[in-house]
Amino acid sequence: MNMKDGRIRVVIESVSPEIDFGRFPAKRIIGDTMSVEADIFTDGHDAISASLLYKTEGEDAWREMPMTPLVNDRWQASFPLEQLGRYRYTVTGWVDHFKSWRKAIEKRVTARQVVSVDMLIGASMVEEAANHASGSAKSTLKKLAASLRSSSVKDDEKLAMVLEPDMVSLVDKHSVRLFTVTYPRELVVVVDPVCARFSAWYEMFPRSASSLPGRHGTFRDCERLLPRVAAMGFDILYFPPIHPIGVTHRKGRNNRPSSNPEDAGSPWAIGSSEGGHKSVNPMLGTPEDYKRLIAKARDKGIEIAFDLAYNCTPDHPYVKEHPEWFRKRPDGTIQYAENPPKKYEDIIPFDFETEHWSELWEELKSIVLFWIDQGIRIFRVDNPHTKPFPFWEWLITEVKRDYPEVIFLSEAFTRPKVMNRLTKLGFSQTYTYFAWRNTKWELTQYFTELGRPGVRDHLRPNLWPNTPDILTEYLQFGGRPAFIARLILAATLGASYGIYGAPYELMEARPREPGSEEYVDSEKYEIKHWNLERPDSLREFITRVNRIRRENPALHDDVSLRFHDVDNDSLLCYSKHTPDWSNIIVTIVNLDPHHTQAGWVTIPLETMSLDAAQPFQVHDLLSDARYLWHGPRNYVELNPNVVPAHVLRIRRRIRSERDFDYFM
Amino acid sequence: MNMKDGRIRVVIESVSPEIDFGRFPAKRIIGDTMSVEADIFTDGHDAISASLLYKTEGEDAWREMPMTPLVNDRWQASFPLEQLGRYRYTVTGWVDHFKSWRKAIEKRVTARQVVSVDMLIGASMVEEAANHASGSAKSTLKKLAASLRSSSVKDDEKLAMVLEPDMVSLVDKHSVRLFTVTYPRELVVVVDPVCARFSAWYEMFPRSASSLPGRHGTFRDCERLLPRVAAMGFDILYFPPIHPIGVTHRKGRNNRPSSNPEDAGSPWAIGSSEGGHKSVNPMLGTPEDYKRLIAKARDKGIEIAFDLAYNCTPDHPYVKEHPEWFRKRPDGTIQYAENPPKKYEDIIPFDFETEHWSELWEELKSIVLFWIDQGIRIFRVDNPHTKPFPFWEWLITEVKRDYPEVIFLSEAFTRPKVMNRLTKLGFSQTYTYFAWRNTKWELTQYFTELGRPGVRDHLRPNLWPNTPDILTEYLQFGGRPAFIARLILAATLGASYGIYGAPYELMEARPREPGSEEYVDSEKYEIKHWNLERPDSLREFITRVNRIRRENPALHDDVSLRFHDVDNDSLLCYSKHTPDWSNIIVTIVNLDPHHTQAGWVTIPLETMSLDAAQPFQVHDLLSDARYLWHGPRNYVELNPNVVPAHVLRIRRRIRSERDFDYFM
User: Fold this and answer.
1) Scanning A485, B48, B119, B623, which has the fewest C-beta atoms within 10 Å of its C-beta?
2) Sign of the Cα pseudo-torsion (B357, B359, B365, B367, in order)
3) ipTM for the predicted complex
4) Which residues contact B375 (CB under 8 A, 6 or more apart)?
């Protein structure tokens, strides 16, 4: 224990946000107000004061914000996050004798006790402050001290003088803080761009972008599709890897172990004689085409997300140039990927236990920096859970030090603690188990867990109802209502969501075989031609949902998510709101894609700053219908074959006869 | 971040118990098994191993216990706590390539894959282990390696050899652990004597112990009462301070501001010309009488608890000898205690902000050591929340370093975070808000909070239904049923509990005035003569409850406390059990002292290792009645005017015809 000065009596604990006692930074976005709380108290009855200290990582001096007590010894203060990158913050506190004295003297004067000695104690404190002041402050304080000592000034007058707010500030400002304690850790918050929290992703394979069936799509073809993606309201367009694809052990259609010469191969099998992680598959175009596409997309408000998949085919140039980065077997062959008894001979993983690990790390970083140079700012990272945690922490920290606007999405479909570690150590967003959470209990439990303080401070979920690897049974069997319901859930439960676009628009639901979550004739292994103009597509519906998201700031964050009671387990109800409650969205989804479900929804009006005694209007942003609701319990009925959900904006006030001029 | 070796891939987090990231020790009692858990995982698919490291604080070398995976990346191991004092522990983990290899080769051989290269990989690992072994271990390992390399041994045979448990242990023992990670903090557990967790306290004023009304009781009188206290089943006998009482501003009866010469004064007003904190009030006897009483009590299985009240009257010798330990006011007078506008002029507090704080600390410690020398092992500390936290942490740590058998009870009736800080920093037990928790909701909430992991690892509640300061309204208005119900709650909700004895036995319920929680004619200010032989006293009942506590180990700990559903809010139901479920106590209390209450209790049989399909017997240890219960839901009815509670021991098995010989 600290025996430096036993007179340091204030305790500061349970600072929040603080992740793993400061081991990892919290995350926020630019423009946020950073609210910090702490338990602060001391022994006995003395008053205390506390300040939040903060600075950007580059600054030397702390800036200071006075903290305010809430309840139960909890204190709070905020500071604005005005630039990208890292801020540091901590908390300091001290026993405030002048504050104690003010409180006591006020009670004493009110109780008409003799206070002459007490006034002298106050006078000494004010004189002490005067000694540390100069100029007019000094003389003001000296005058106050003299008044407190004077026997010709009445107690009530002395009290009025010394409690005058400007005077209190002046004494506070010049008082020496004795025995202050500062929280032993400096904490960090990483400030990301807005898209780290609020983003709508659209995934497509550029090789399927051609307008001519059978032809290999190109970046130029993708340019043609940009206005369509923008019009649908997506702001991130994500391509699987764009590199040359290996030939050795290339997989055939439907993941067959062998391929024909015309098979396109999996884009995740990276590296061939045509190049590796810094090369572009020539079938897609030139590196210049890619740069041009990035720029054109940005003009339309779309960022291109790059797929960072750190693995190689046996044909990758690294295998010859850096055999020391791979694991050799006793027969001299290189260890391919496997999950015994399964073998993935088309992929060879890096050996992160190599003695040459630091050169390997540097090279892997150089890949990221190379694509940043080409204009990329968003990296979707393939299987980060199969590479060491220290590597990611180093990589992301290094990259974001120079490029704080860059974000990383973790594609870690793995065990919960591994997933959490990756977001703690720096990933800006993560894929989740959302695709497999279908029932009311599952969704409520899972999103309550993700929303816990501590978790929500580092883990930003990105919700995908489907991916090229995931065609859930719910989508396979639920038909159009299932696709609509899952889209609404993803887009409103998550400030960030994404779809594997064309198959979702077209409600592609055929698995490779019964029980499989793989698509039949999966685009992972072949070029597809999607008929995006099909009249039954979900395009218009998706466009509407994305517009609702943009127009309603309640949906731009996950922190306000709350679930509400419905007396029907097929109906899920939840709300989000802005901090000032000016925008409140209540979503109700029928999770049963087959039957109409009805029930009574209970909304806690009293906690929503709504008057439970007044009727209010709810506006369904999906159907444009408006309903008059009254009180916390209201009836809903959802037919999945019409629309399986309400996305209700609460309009606070209903017009009444009082609103007409003649009533005044 | 740690860049020493990027190949350290294992993560260890969320070790439990760990309080405030190792800032404070956890607490256990001697004989406990110390179970430690941690989240341990790595990237990818490699197998890992982990060990719990532990030692007593005096030892240099760690002892090691292999950890076992539970679920969800949680690992566990235990070590025995065999001596009082401090143990240290931490966790270490590593990627275990031999374990990964064993798992893979087993699957491969089962799948009849070609494994010759894989056997060579295993052979190298075994040879590596052999190189670090000697003697017979070396030759055994060399032989195994040779077999794995041999083309004349069949794969199945190789597999059998290498999976043989002794062989696995041998390889493990001699394998070099590469890239191990050890949790960055060494954690501490303080091992206390049993009474720190399980104790029944009886509070009495020795000055009221005389058998003759009006005469000042003495330690000799107390000796006479020892058999009675022991027979009732109490093991700690607690006296208010035994020091000379001040004269200046001495309070009169019922806390009147002035006193008559015959007024005895408050024992907490410590210090007079007859001495201070190391002196005994001559009216109680000599220091030798006190030592003798301590020894006589110990013979009867009773420890005398000492009241450590660090405050002085104006007459205390310290005031003259060490004026520098008190705060002076501008008029030269010494600052008395106050809570404006209230003044406590009979008490002057130490000034812990004095420049001479370290001398003050040493003197206060010497008081504790002085009474330890007299035989005291249990200190009840008066108002610790009005002295600095660092002082207590230092004092308790210092004292327990030399006297690990000493325990401290914190009498901190203050805000929750202050109370928690005191137990975190070292107090062995604490008073609680129990006295004011009367309804089902209040009791359930409060004891659920106290039982949370983290809290329960440092805070041991001691439940008092009354104290000389606290006569609750529930007791004032509830009559005999209220006294009985609150005793049962205290004694079964808390492994430690206590009563302010005579008034409780006699159901003294008269407050000083309506709305007050002070006793009328409080013993704090006068000598009382209690008629302990009154026929309506609770003595027999209390004796029975204490016997139930002693005989049922389920009640010796709080960690297993669980609340159960009753469909009547006046009935509270909870259970405790031993770790092996051999002793299960279900308590049901009627919280309404005025009316019979009945309801259906739901006990989660499936989690209690009870067969829900079989009837079982519950034995009411209060009434000795036995009931046959069946299934989780059973009916109870409690008349407060008979006994307002059941304390049921669950007898697992009901005899049936199958138990008779002729049935076999």
Assistant:
1) B623
2) negative
3) 0.94
4) B291, B294, B295, B298, B304
